[in-house]
């Protein structure tokens, strides 16, 4: 079974990749691309690819990581420093939730830092390191 136009719009708005959508419906990402064209959807607009996002990684409904970046970054495990975090992502145990879209990277980074501080105080965001946030700009 393939996604309806409405389902496809919802998935794209949630910033899912074509492969993620294909996996849900047991099809290929090429078929998802064909559907996007058939329905005349603009995935870049729906995913807000020109925005900077802030997102959570959740494990059993607990925030284990707060991050920011371009829309697809939240799903990349290759750029994670913590091996446990990487493995949880590889195993498909991490859920993703987008919590903000910003026009300016600086605004996204500031919001990310606020959320990290908030969740650290709650004993969460265990894969975030406060000192790494201060040096993010240095790693560009």
Structure description:
This protein has a three-stranded antiparallel sheet. The chain has helices at 5-13, 18-25, 29-38, 43-47, 83-90, 105-121, 130-134; strands at residues 52-59, 62-69, 95-102. It has 140 residues and is an alpha+beta fold. Residues 132-140 have low confidence and may be disordered. The protein contains seven helices and three strands.
Structural class of the secondary structure composition?
alpha+beta
Q: Supply Rg.
A: 16 Å
**Proportion of strand residues:** 15-25%
Mean pLDDT: 91
Order of helices and strands: HHHHEEHEHH
Give the uncertain stretches in residue-range form. 132-140
Percent of residues in helices comes to 40-55%
Biggest sheet details: 3 strands, antiparallel
Strand order of the largest sheet: 2-1-3
Distance between the termini: 42 Å
Based on DSSP secondary structure assignment, what is the total number of beta strands? 3
Number of helices: 7
Shape: globular
Features:
single chain, 140 residues, alpha+beta, 3-stranded antiparallel sheet, 7 helices, disordered C terminus
Spell out the blueprint of helices and strands:
Layout: H1 5-13, H2 18-25, H3 29-38, H4 43-47, E1 52-59, E2 62-69, H5 83-90, E3 95-102, H6 105-121, H7 130-134
Antiparallel strand pairs: 1-2, 1-3
Helix pairs in contact: 2-3
